[in-house]
Design goal:
membrane; transmembrane; single chain; DUF4153; DUF4173 domain-containing protein; globular; 480 residues; transmembrane helix
Length: 480
C-alpha cells in the first residue's frame, strides 16, 4: 500500500464519521460551517501528502464558500437552505479542482464550470471501488497464508452477520425465553441495534464516494488546455440558422404588435379587463420562461455553433439577430416584472413573489451582459454572470427576506386592513416577531399559525440544527 493511500483512507474515514454525525444524522444549522472547516482541513492534509502548496491569493472562491456556509448559522429559510447546499457543493468542488490543478479549462470560463459534472459527480462514482483495490494490493504484499485467513474471516463476517441477524429476529419471535435472553443482553450492554445499523449504512454511503473524490484528486493530472478552450465548434449551416431565426423574428414582431396594449398596461398600473392581478402576473411569468429559454438557445446556436467562415458580413448579421432576440426577451422579462410588481402593490409580498422577482432581475442582467458580449468580444460573459449571480444570491440570503416580508405584510395588515396572515404560512421563524405584533390586534386569526411556529421552534432539539433565527424565535416565545 502506498503511504499516501493509507493516510488518505484514515483521513477520509475520520471525515466520514464527522460528516455523518454533523450533517446526515445531525442538522443543517451550525453543523454546516463546521463540516466545511473539517473538509478544508482534510484538503490541506491531502495537499501536504502530495506536496502541493495552496495559494491563498488564487483561492478567491473561499469568500462565497464561507459566506454561503454562514447562511446556515444566521437564517432558516428552507428553500434557500436547499439551494445553498447545491451552491456550496458546486463552489467547493470547483474550488478544490482549481487548487489541485485537475480542471482543464480557464478559470471562471463556461467550460470550466461544466467540469463540475465530471469532477463533482462522475469522478467520485467512478473511483468508489478504489478503497477495496488499495486493501487488495496491501494484502498481496503480505504473506499468502495470513492473507487468506484474514480475507476468509472478512468474507465470513460479511455473509454471516445479516444471516445471524435475520435468524435471531425469527428465533425471538418463536421463543419467549430466547427473546428475554437477547433483550437482557442488549439492555445489559446498552446496545441500540438501529443506532448501530444506521451508522454503518451511512458510513458506507459517505465513505466510498468521498474517498473516490480524494483518489481522483491524487491521480487526475490533466492540465489546462487553453487552445482547446478557444477552439470554436461550428456545426450548423449559416443559411439554415438565419432562415429559422428570420421566421421566428417575424412571428415575434407580429405578436408584439397584436399584444402591445396588453404588454404595456402593467407599466401604466392598469389591469386589463377579464384578468385578476394573480392571473395577470402568472401569465406574464409563464410567457417569459418558455420564450426566453427558446431565445437563449437560439442565441447560443447563432453565436457559438454557426459557420460564419470568418465573413464580416455574416458576423454582423448574426450580431443583428442576436441583438433583436436579446431585446425581445428583455422586453418580455421587464413586462413580466411590471405585472408582478402590480400584483405585489395590490396584495402585498409573499416569499414566492420575491423569488420570482429576483429571478426576473437576474434574467434582465444576464440578457444585458449577452448584449454587451455581442459587440464587445473581450467581455468575460460567464465570469461576470457568475459574479452577479453570486452577489445577488448571497444578497437574497443576507437580506433576511422572511423578516422583511413579514414586516411589510404586518404593516399592510395594521394600516390598510389587508389580510396578509396566510403569507406567514410560507415564511421561516424569522417572521415570528412581526407575526406577534399582528397577534396583539387579532389573536383569533393568528392563534393557529403561531402554534405552527412554536412546533417548528421547539421541534429542533439537536445542537447541529442551532442557528441565530431559531435562538431568537425561542426567546420571543418565552418572553411573550
Amino acid at each position: 500500500m502506498k503511504e499516501q493511500d493509507g493516510k488518505s483512507i484514515i483521513g477520509v474515514a475520520i471525515g466520514t464519521i464527522l460528516f455523518m454525525e454533523l450533517l446526515t444524522l445531525g442538522g443543517w444549522g451550525i453543523a454546516v460551517p463546521i463540516a466545511v472547516i473539517i473538509y478544508y482541513i482534510l484538503i490541506l492534509w491531502q495537499s501536504k501528502i502530495l506536496m502541493i502548496k495552496q495559494n491563498i491569493t488564487t483561492n478567491i472562491l473561499l469568500i462565497p464558500i464561507a459566506m454561503t456556509a454562514l447562511c446556515f448559522v444566521f437564517f432558516d429559510n428552507t428553500l434557500l437552505k436547499s439551494l445553498n447546499i447545491l451552491f456550496l457543493y458546486g463552489l467547493i468542488v470547483l474550488n478544490t479542482s482549481q487548487q489541485f490543478g485537475i480542471n482543464r479549462f480557464e478559470f471562471l470560463s463556461f467550460r470550466w464550470f461544466l467540469e463540475l459534472v465530471p469532477i463533482g459527480i462522475l469522478m467520485p462514482l467512478e473511483n468508489m471501488g478504489q478503497p477495496i483495490n488499495v486493501v487488495k494490493k496491501e494484502m498481496k504484499e503480505r504473506s499468502k497464508d495470513s492473507n487468506n485467513v484474514i480475507f476468509k474471516v472478512l468474507i465470513g463476517l460479511l455473509i454471516g452477520l445479516p444471516i445471524v441477524f435475520i435468524a435471531t429476529i425469527l428465533l425471538m419471535n418463536t421463543d419467549v425465553a430466547f427473546e428475554s435472553i437477547i433483550t437482557l443482553i442488549f439492555e445489559k450492554f446498552d446496545f441500540d441495534l438501529m443506532w448501530i445499523l444506521q451508522r454503518i449504512i451511512f458510513s458506507i454511503i459517505i465513505f466510498f464516494p468521498l474517498y473516490g473524490f480524494f483518489y481522483g484528486l491524487r491521480n487526475k493530472k490533466d492540465k489546462t488546455n487553453e487552445q482547446k478552450e478557444k477552439n470554436k465548434i461550428q456545426i450548423f449551416d449559416f443559411i439554415i440558422v438565419i432562415t429559422v431565426t428570420s421566421f421566428l423574428c417575424v412571428v415575434y414582431m407580429m405578436y408584439c404588435l397584436s399584444q402591445l396594449t396588453y404588454f404595456i398596461s402593467a407599466f401604466k398600473g392598469i389591469l386589463p379587463a377579464d384578468y385578476t392581478f394573480a392571473a395577470y402576473a402568472r401569465k406574464g411569468f409563464f410567457e417569459c420562461i418558455p420564450l426566453g429559454s427558446i431565445n437563449l438557445l437560439i442565441i447560443m446556436v447563432l453565436t457559438l455553433f454557426t459557420k460564419t467562415e470568418n465573413s464580416k458580413k455574416k458576423g454582423n448579421l448574426i450580431k443583428g439577430y442576436t441583438s433583436y432576440l436579446v431585446a425581445f426577451t428583455l422586453f418580455l422579462v421587464i413586462s413580466a416584472f411590471s405585472k408582478m410588481w402590480l400584483y405585489i402593490s395590490a396584495y402585498g409580498i409573499t416569499i414566492m413573489r420575491v423569488y420570482v422577482s429576483w429571478f426576473l432581475i437576474v434574467g434582465c442582467i444576464t440578457l444585458l451582459f449577452i448584449g454587451i458580449k455581442t459587440y464587445y468580444s473581450k467581455f468575460k460573459l460567464t465570469k461576470n454572470i457568475f459574479m452577479v449571480f453570486t452577489i445577488m444570491f448571497l444578497g437574497l440570503n443576507y437580506a433576511n427576506i422572511d423578516y422583511r416580508i413579514a414586516e411589510y405584510d404586518a404593516q399592510l395588515y395594521k394600516t390598510e386592513n389587508v389580510n396578509t396572515i396566510s403569507a406567514f404560512d410560507e415564511l421561516s421563524n424569522s417572521a415570528l416577531e412581526p407575526l406577534i405584533k399582528i397577534s396583539d390586534i387579532d389573536k383569533d386569526n393568528t392563534k393557529l399559525i403561531i402554534k405552527k411556529y412554536e412546533n417548528r421552534v421547539y421541534g429542533k432539539t439537536k445542537w447541529q440544527d442551532w442557528n441565530v433565527t431559531n435562538y431568537k424565535a425561542r426567546e420571543i416565545l418565552e418572553n411573550r
